[in-house]
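pinned: reference chain
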Amino acid sequence: MFAHSQDLSSRIEEQEDRLVTYQLTLRGRDGMVLASDQCENTKPQYGDVRVKNLLRKVFFSGGFAWAYSGGALGPIFAEYVNRNLVDDNGIISDDDARNIFENCGKLTYAEYMSTMTGPAGESVAVLACGKSKRIFRATISSPMTAIEVVSGPGSPCITGNRYNLAAFVATRFYSPEMSVEELCSLAAYSIRAASDLEPNYVDGLDVAVYRDSVGKFEFVDSDTYWRNTANTDKELRNSFHAVSSSLNSHT
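pinned: its structure tokens
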């Protein structure tokens, strides 16, 4: 069932200096949003200057979407999941998807240990189940992949560089009553803010959306949402001006 990951050693050497990313998984009244930046920093085999690359870290099939962040195991794990979590016919259950996640984590770690001698580090993957709106978070750092259910629809699921100050934006303004369109704007704004704060760690944007009316995940035009963050800044400043003017008129 599980395809063999080719050229594992060379790809791990390229990824071992990967820095954390910033991701949001959000439940809304009419669907779900999984958003991630695209940034990775790697150190070439020869030399000490890190190189920033942009690549996709969000993937989906049918009613499931997943993303990875963290160390060298993340992209290898994602390859396994991409090959094995195929929901084209919509017959995979949440438990099936969770089991695939767990098995892919075991195989990823086993291949790493059979190829490399150094510590594997820790990678984190998130799984969004569109129909049920369940969220699973997997920690890949040992032979047993630890998978937890992210409970509580009233708060966002933040993975990767969750201590970035921009996480305040998502935590403060998120509501499960928001529409997926509103969640896309919120996620894009938070990730753009994270990029402005730490451009060497966070950059680029991918947003996958599950609409209840459609029944599957699909990408949206992330470039448009990224550009629109400047308008959000302007509107926020205008709202503070409006509140201030209203208060002054009553004094």
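why pinned: Confidence is low (pLDDT under 50) at residues 1-6, 8-18. The first strand starts at residue 22 and ends at 28.
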